[in-house]
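Entry 14. Structure prediction run on the chain below.
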Amino acid sequence: MSGAILPDRDALPDRDALIAAALAASAHAYAPYSRFKVGAALAFADGSVVTGSNVENASYGLSLCAETVAAARAMSDGLRGGLVAVAVIGAVIGGSADNGGPVLPGQPPVTPCGRCRQILDELAGLGGTDPLIWCAGDEEVLEVRLSELLPHAFRKDNFLG
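Output returned:
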């Protein structure tokens, strides 16, 4: 994100606390088909944190990712800009299709999908920020800027001239 504001490290939320918020959100995921529960937590400059979890649908194309749910919640709550950090965590659960069962071990870090990267970029663009994205797994946290995940985002400038 060219010319984007990079938040000062001191202005960022606690990484582990934001990942914990994403993990807590993942407990509310509705994932009876893939059994892949994802949680996301978005941190804003004003200190607010908005979470979301994935919501699957029998028609897979209508499913909602955790990051999209969180961004929609933030926008519907009036948060426009100031996005400084995002935490994402996901895990495959064992057991039956009713979402029961333990988290299976060995989960690698989960990164936002392409659609979610674009959704997050739109929200970040409203405040001109380039948020830090923490992608959590069992034993590793990948830390990357949104602009690194989506280096050539489609923005309003692309069609407004």
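The beta strands are 36-44, 49-53, 83-92, 132-136, 141-145.
Filed with the rest of this week's runs.
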